[in-house]
Amino acid sequence: MSSTRSTTRGYELFGLAVFAFCTYCAQRSDTPAQAAVPHAIATQSTTTASATATTTAALAPTTAALAPTKPAEIVEKKSPRVVLHIGDSMVGYGHGLSLAMKKRYEKAGVEYHYDAWTSAQVATIDHKKMDRLLAAFKPDLVLFNLGTNMLSVPHPEALASGIHALAEHLAGNGRECVWIAPIRPKWKFNPKMYDVLESNVAPCKYFDAGPELDPPLQTDRIHPTDAGGEAWATPLWDFLSRAS
Question: Are residues 106 and 186 in the same domain?
Fold first, then answer.
């Protein structure tokens, strides 16, 4: 009987020891597992960050490629510093067209000078005076009125070489020049003169206000009044602003 109790007591003690050992092992096992969780999260975060960085790097060229390209720089036309306006009497002698252009250039802060030759034609232009003006003012833009006194010429093509030579001279030393065609007169004229001018004024640019322009004229029915000069200057100024 005593032996039986001892044996039973021994089993109980042995079982208790086994339970305690298992509990201890379980605690030992739980601790690394709990400690491993932050490590796993950290590893996952690092992996994710690395993958994100790789993806971003991979997408970078694509993003750059898809980025809108910057428009090419717009080269703005420079305004002239000095303008010389010369030619026949249609320049206006300080009235008409020259008065209207002077107002515009002075408002724009541009130096403007004018001079004219009465009854001037290609063959009668005072070249010495013209060269003195070019040398004195050193314009970077020349406005040139010529053609009114040649509108009745029966064969204007004969003037082609003279027109071209004069235009080349005006455009010398890198000057810009604009040859201004005459307004349509009230008398009978040869319209071929306009074609000859347009075809031969290079390297100057050619401006023709066209038959639509019908400015108020002085009593001689030839030269524009100051109001007529304004009407002529409006399309001319627009042309000069757009010309490159």
Answer: yes
